[in-house]
Each structure stands twice: as structure tokens, then as C-alpha cells.
Specification:
about 220 residues; Rossmann fold; five-stranded parallel β-sheet; four-stranded antiparallel β-sheet; 6 helices; 9 strands; about 25% strand; globular; binds adenosine-5'-triphosphate; binds magnesium ion
Length: about 220
């Protein structure tokens, strides 16, 4: 299995509070990792750091074999857009946009795009709507959707660009058992297809679906 992410001796503090202390870990292709740990232990902080959303830390981070500190900002933006799918703990959907536009957002903001939405993106959006059973939510105001409905849209959006690395911050936190199982099946399939899956959860009952568990 190819190493995709290598973290060496990572230290992250907020003020004088150490959140990550000499944290080292390797994440590989075809590997589904679950990260768990008490509230406030630094799970979201770690995902943000892996997702290139926070570079204020010490230690070494190699992504696809490259030291992220040597990457130009434009290259980092491109990696974030194309190669990393981030499912945020609070979804971060855009209330003024409909479901399709929310799912298509990564293509609209793509540094390489500047083009009208391609047939490929429209097709992929339709495929994701089917994959996550979102058909009945078309034309609904995003603000009126339930937490679980918004959560599934956020998952679809994170997968739009077919990223190599998927970072999921409590992606099943608002889902019922059947939707949780559906998401875990999709995540397992994506991992088996070669993705690097990193998921934060408090739910011990689904942890056996992963290849390993890291407790922070
Ligand atoms: N921008 C910030 N400034 C100061 N402290 C912060 C900041 N972001 C997070 N923290 C603190 O860092 C700690 C780790 O936060 P983090 O969000 O990573 O926890 P978590 O493990 O994801 O928790 P939860 O399970 O509740 O989501 C918490 O104590 C939090 O209050
Ligand atoms: Mg968190």
C-alpha cells in the first residue's frame, strides 16, 4: 500500500495549550482509519491540519511524498480542491444555493475551472444524488433540511472531485442507523477502490468497519 500522508512529530498548540504533542502517523492508499477520542482532544484540529486548512504547527507533513511547506500556495489550493475531500463537522453548506449547486461547489471554485459547469460534473452530481438517496431533496431550501439531510449533501459535495483523500469529521453524527450503514458501505467501497479514508467518530459501534482505530 502506497503512503499518501506522513506526519512526523507534529505539535500543535492554541496559545499555551498543547493539542497535538509529538504526533506521528502514516496514512496509506486503500486504508480506512477511524480517529476517536474525547471531545476537545484535537480530532478536528488534526483533520484541518491534514486537509491543509491549518499550517500553523511544527513538525513535518509529507503529502503524496512532498513536504507541504515547499508547496506554492496555488499548488496547495489545487491539491485541496482536487485531491482532498473534506466533510466538515458542521457541514458548511451555503444556504442561498440549492442542493445541486451546493454539491457542485468544488467545481465552481476549482482553480483550474473558469469554465461553465461541464457535462461530466453535472453527471457526477446526479450520480452522487442517487448514491446518497438525495433525490427527494431537489428544490428544497437548504435551511429547511434536517441535520441528517444536510450531512448527506455535505458528504456528496466532498466526493464531487473524486478526491484521493477523504477527511470526514463525524460524518454520521446526525444519521439514523440505516443511513449510517449506507455511508459506511460507501466509505468502505471507496477505500477498496484505492482512496485514503480518515474518519473521526465517537460511535464505537461502527469502528469495526475501518482497518484501524487511532485514539487521540
Ligand atoms: N481556533 C482555536 N482557538 C483556540 N482554541 C481552539 C481553537 N480551535 C480549537 N480549539 C481548542 O482545541 C481543542 C481541540 O479542539 P478540536 O475541535 O480539535 O476537538 P475535537 O477533538 O474535534 O472535539 P469534538 O469531539 O468536541 O469535536 C479544544 O479544547 C478546543 O476548544
Ligand atoms: Mg471535532
Amino acid at each position: 500500500m502506497c503512503t499518501v500522508i506522513s506526519l512526523n512529530n507534529i505539535q500543535k498548540s492554541f496559545g499555551d495549550r498543547k493539542i497535538l504533542d509529538h504526533f506521528s502517523c502514516v496514512f496509506k492508499q486503500h486504508q480506512f482509519t477511524i480517529i476517536t477520542g474525547r471531545s476537545g482532544k484535537g480530532k478536528t484540529t488534526l483533520l484541518h491540519l491534514i486537509g491543509l486548512l491549518d499550517q500553523d504547527f511544527s513538525g513535518e507533513y509529507l503529502l503524496f511524498g512532498q513536504n507541504i511547506r515547499s508547496l506554492k500556495p496555488s499548488k496547495k489550493d489545487l491539491i485541496r480542491n482536487r485531491s482532498i475531500g473534506f466533510i466538515f463537522q458542521n457541514y458548511h453548506l451555503i444556504p442561498g444555493l440549492d442542493m445541486q449547486s451546493n454539491i457542485m461547489l468544488p467545481s465552481i471554485y476549482s482553480p483550474l475551472s473558469g469554465n461553465p459547469i461541464s457535462k461530466k460534473i453535472s453527471q457526477r452530481t446526479e450520480d452522487l444524488i442517487g448514491m446518497f438517496h438525495l433525490e427527494s431533496l431537489q428544490n428544497r431550501d437548504i435551511r429547511t433540511l434536517s441535520g441528517g439531510e444536510q450531512q448527506r449533501i455535505a458528504i456528496a459535495r466532498a466526493l464531487l472531485m473524486d478526491p484521493d483523500v477523504i477527511l470526514a469529521d463525524e460524518p454520521t453524527g446526525n444519521l439514523d442507523e440505516s443511513n449510517t450503514n449506507m455511508i459506511m458501505d460507501q466509505f468502505r467501497n471507496l477505500t477498496d477502490q484505492g482512496k485514503t479514508m480518515i474518519m473521526v467518530t465517537h460511535d464505537r459501534s461502527i469502528a469495526d468497519r475501518a482497518d484501524r482505530i487511532i485514539e487521540l
